[in-house]
Design a protein that fits this description.
Helix content: 40-55%
Mean pLDDT: 91
Shape: elongated
Order of helices and strands: HHHHHHHHHHEE
Distance between the termini: 26 Å
Strand content: under 5%
Largest sheet: 2 strands, antiparallel
Structural class: mainly alpha
Strand order of the largest sheet: 1-2
Number of helices: 10
Length: about 230
């Protein structure tokens, strides 16, 4: 994608959503870190349902350690991989207490040293909690980067580096959110909704989709296939 098209691409996404935010619910940086760890291979909606009651009482690493692994599992048992995630959340909470004065560090290396925290999680926390210009490449952003031609790459890290190089100011801070929301709700995995995409003319995707037509027999419309479920 040409530099002028990249600017226009982001400008349109920004005009449509000037102040994008994460869809994960959290009251502080610690809760955000926990929520992002829990969101791996799960939907934000599912994580929010599981953490609403949890976050009413657990607001600090100390409170999480006091709750314990078994207690945490009771809250998050509806989330995929909840056993491993519960173990990691308790361990990272203990590490925050022991090594960081119970505070979430704003440093990528320090974050990635915590149990259950990878580069994507670290980038999300740095961006949302600390305002860092990071690009957390999940399945949605990986797809959008490749499909549109904005930041093609064979691995998430390759796409991240391309985005970091290609994304200009003033779009760098919110780029991650614009791209993930675009991938989640418009540029979907199975059937991208190109017919309502505001940047389709800038996109390199050749097999653009048209709006499905409603078949009619007499005066009764035939039901259409439902839209695919949100992919995380």
């Amino acid at each position: 994608m040409k530099k002028t098209d990249i600017v226009e691409f982001y400008a349109r996404l920004a005009a449509d959503n000037p102040h994008p935010e994460t869809e994960l619910e959290a009251g502080n940086a610690y809760q955000l870190l926990v929520a992002v760890v829990l969101s791996a291979q799960a939907t934000d909606i599912g994580v929010n349902k599981a953490t609403r009651a949890l976050f009413q009482t657990v607001k600090t690493p100390e409170a999480m350690v006091a709750l314990g692994e078994a207690g945490l599992k009771d809250h998050i048992k509806t989330i995929g991989l909840f056993n491993t995630k519960a173990k990691n959340v308790i361990a990272l909470s203990a590490a925050l207490i022991a090594d960081h004065g119970s505070q979430v560090p704003p440093d990528r290396d320090a974050l990635e040293a915590l149990p259950g925290v990878g580069r994507k999680t670290a980038n999300v926390v740095m961006n949302v909690a600390f305002g860092a210009e990071t690009f957390a490449v999940d399945t949605h952003i990986f797809r959008v980067g490749n499909r549109t031609g904005l930041a093609p790459g064979k691995t998430p890290l390759a796409v991240e580096k391309k985005l970091d190089k290609a994304t200009p100011q003033p779009f760098r801070l919110h780029a991650h959110h614009w791209l993930i929301l675009h991938g989640r709700y418009v540029c979907k995995a199975r059937t991208p909704e190109c017919w309502r995409c505001g940047v389709s003319d800038l996109c390199a995707f050749k097999a653009k989709t048209a709006k499905a037509k409603t078949a009619v027999v007499g005066k009764q419309p035939l039901p259409q296939r439902p839209a695919p479920e949100r992919e995380e």
